[in-house]
Design a protein that fits this description.
By secondary structure, this protein is of the alpha/beta class. The chain has ten helices and six strands; from the N terminus they run βαβαββααβαβααααα. The radius of gyration is 18 Å and the shape is globular. Mean pLDDT is 92; it is low at 258-267. The chain has a domain at 3-181: Rossmann fold, CATH 3.40.50.620. The protein is 36% helix and 11% strand.
Length: 278
């Protein structure tokens, strides 16, 4: 009997590479299910890419979104969507903010609710609650590997099964007939607060509109959640307004990008069980 393995498909190049390798080389060992948790704030290119991978590789990728109960003590559940019905205006994200408040470094609950708890709700609903979970963290990202991975039932195929670094992923994708269509600094979540300030400033110069959502959230829900204090999203206690004002002071969108640490915060994607979500 095959061991059950859920593959967390974040929508990034690395997790997609991992999914393809598991599908083509390990399907005789594992019964595989693939899941993508949509927050409603991904770039459209990410959604197109996930859908394309599903069709090109002839696999079912289950799309799930958070369903947040307003009642305290009742956890986040899920709903199943697809490319056509997936939220694109932050609806699941806003529901999380209404209940838990604006996420930021001291309160990093967005990944927990929008991805981890949503996926766990789905896996319990199909009777796979105790299955292993494969996460797309590479061998060159050791800081993102959970110390309690074994206890949590998490495996890192790109670390332990077929050690892989970023250059290997990029080389593989360079030979494929389709691409993600995003630049490295863009990531999957368009304005993720885990991105470094230089990345966010570059995105603000290139695609200012993606900050409409966090700006509205800070205007409407700054006091939401249990903290009892006003909250903002970004590093160094910057609001979206502060960040955009700083971007307006910069002439070149690439001014600070040369010194970026690609392994800081949010490099390519935000993994559902990456350890930064608790």
């Amino acid at each position: 009997m095959k061991q059950r393995l859920i593959v967390s498909f974040s929508g990034g190049l690395t997790s997609a590479f991992m999914a393809h390798e598991l599908l083509t080389k390990y399907s005789a060992i594992y019964e595989l299910l693939f899941v993508f948790a949509n927050t409603g704030q991904e770039w459209e290119q990410t959604l197109v890419f996930v859908d394309r991978c599903s069709h090109e590789w002839n696999i079912e990728i289950v799309w799930v979104e958070a369903v947040v109960s307003p009642i305290r003590g009742i956890g986040t559940s899920h709903r199943i969507v697809d490319f056509e019905t997936a939220s694109r205006n932050g609806e699941p994200f806003e529901a999380v903010i209404v209940k838990y408040g604006i996420p930021n470094k001291p309160f990093p609950h967005c990944t927990r609710e929008l991805k981890k708890n949503t996926i766990n709700s789905w896996r319990r609903s199909i009777g796979w609650g105790n299955s292993l979970m494969a996460i797309g963290i590479r061998a060159d990202e050791p800081r993102r590997v959970r110390k309690d991975a074994d206890k949590q039932g998490i495996i890192y195929p790109l670390v332990s099964m077929f050690p892989t670094i970023k250059e290997m992923v990029n080389d593989w994708w360079s030979e494929q007939p389709f691409k993600l269509g995003l630049l490295p600094h863009q990531g999957n979540c368009s304005w993720c607060w885990k991105k470094s300030t230089p990345k966010l400033l570059r995105i603000a110069k290139e695609s200012r509109h993606v900050f409409d959502f966090p700006a509205r959230m800070e205007e409407q829900y700054t006091m939401a959640g249990p903290s009892g204090q006003p909250q903002v999203f970004f590093r160094d206690w910057r609001s979206t307004k502060d960040l955009l004002q700083l971007a307006d002071m910069i002439d070149s969108p690439k001014l600070f990008i040369e010194h970026e640490d690609e392994d800081a915060g949010c490099s390519e994607s935000c993994e559902a069980f990456g350890g930064e979500d608790t």
